[in-house]
Amino acid sequence: MIAFVRGTVAGLTLSSAVLEVGGVGLELNCTPGTLAQLRTGAEATLPTSMIVREESLTLFGFIDEDEKSVFEMLLTASGVGPKLAQAMLAVHSPDELRRAVTTEDVKALTTVPGIGQKGAQRIILELKDRIGAPVGSASARTAPAAAAEPWRDQVHAGLVGLGWSAKEAEKAVEAVAPEAGSAPSPDVAALLRAALRTLSKA
After folding, report:
1. What does residue 93 show for φ and ψ, rounded to 5 degrees?
2. Which of 47, 131, 148, 190 could form a disulfide with 127 if both were Cys (CB 3.0 to 4.6 A apart)?
3. Residue 28 belongs to domain with CATH number
4. Which range marks the domain in which residue 185 is found?
């Protein structure tokens, strides 16, 4: 298994990053919050989880070990595959997921695209005694974007990557714009989660 990847960020897409390691480009599927912290040409080290299928080997990359451990825990729940686990981490931070599961907050879990009330209840039932309490992890989700306006493109790209239409993404970006304010370095991951909550209410 590949525990982590360290290399130069060779490219970024809506849902993945390509890291060049020893002349080989490895594609890692990442959440929008993780992708927002990466810059093309910069060095990066990402913990990884490899999902093996008959027809493919897929690497998922994470901003830190905490995000990786929660991802792998989510995969142990019935009906939760890699894409859904990744969507859960796109909407909620690891601690927010721990809190939602341990406090049986069905409403919080159903803000994730693809999770209904029954699915949320099943996840809570299966993980409540295993996922652990919030640990107060201060992951790099709070790292700023490079400038004030790029956050719009990053949030928009993240929403489209999670399956929302470009038009829906644009509306959500505008809805959360007041939260960004005039700060030179808004929290992209927090704005993305706010945008997803806006869409889930629509």
Report:
1. -75, 165
2. 131
3. 2.40.50.140
4. 144-201
Six token digits for residue 150? 């790029």
Q: Say if CB 86 and CB 136 are below 8 A apart.
A: no
Q: What's the pLDDT score for residue 146? A: 36
* Phi and psi, residue 40, nearest 5°: -60, 130
Evaluate whether residue 23 is within a structural domain.
yes
Write the CATH number for 197.
1.10.8
Nearest alpha carbon to residue 67 among 35, 40, 24, 19: 35
Whether 56 and 83 have beta carbons less than 8 Å apart is answered as: no
Domain tally, the chain: 3
Mean pLDDT of the chain: 86
